[in-house]
Amino acid sequence: NAGVTQTPKFRVLKTGQSMTLLCAQDMNHEYMYWYRQDPGMGLRLIHYSVGEGTTAKGEVPDGYNVSRLKKQNFLLGLESAAPSQTSVYFCASSYPSRMRQGANTGELFFGEGSRLTVL
Amino acid sequence: KNEVEQSPQNLTAQEGEFITINCSYSVGISALHWLQQHPGGGIVSLFMLSSGKKKHGRLIATINIQEKHSSLHITASHPRDSAVYICAGVGGSRLTFGEGTQLTVNP
Predict the structure, then answer these.
(1) In angstroms, how far apart are the furthest CA atoms of chain A?
(2) What is the pLDDT of residue A68?
(3) What's the average model confidence in pLDDT over A12-41?
(4) A58/B97 touch (CB, cutoff 8 Å), yes or no
């Protein structure tokens, strides 16, 4: 049981290049999230998914795309990287609470983070 | 004004001290997470609570949903408790994070 795994852990890109970050979880979680963490700011939600085949925009979605073709995987893509996208990216997953329909009160599991630098 | 605010932003303590970190939120939430982020960067979930109090070892978390306030307490603090502590409010399928509290416990 690996939990939440992110790849790659580190990447350096040039402006305009594209790349994909992969998040994989083996806990059969419904909900998956992509966050970015920047100095002096809290974790900010980029995109999220509440189930296979569904995605939704978070607070800072511009410049990113996502896909959730399989329940266990959530991919984050940068089509044309910009220096402003230099950040540490975290993936997280959880299950929805059965006690309160529609509210996600499940425990959160995070990946180890992916440090992306765009030159 | 952030929807989720933590205080203090930075906290330095001596080993053995009792520590309190506060989290206040202005949005409606159904539950709140307390997370720990170590210098290596990994984030670990400490607690998820929607009412009352939870205890795990030397850590205690309390929440008052009506007053929109939660606290994380660490008893008998230890240098290994040094980390960033983050609270996150749950609203539907999304979370709103505080900026974190940097805790340093000196031996």
Answers:
(1) 47
(2) 97
(3) 93
(4) no
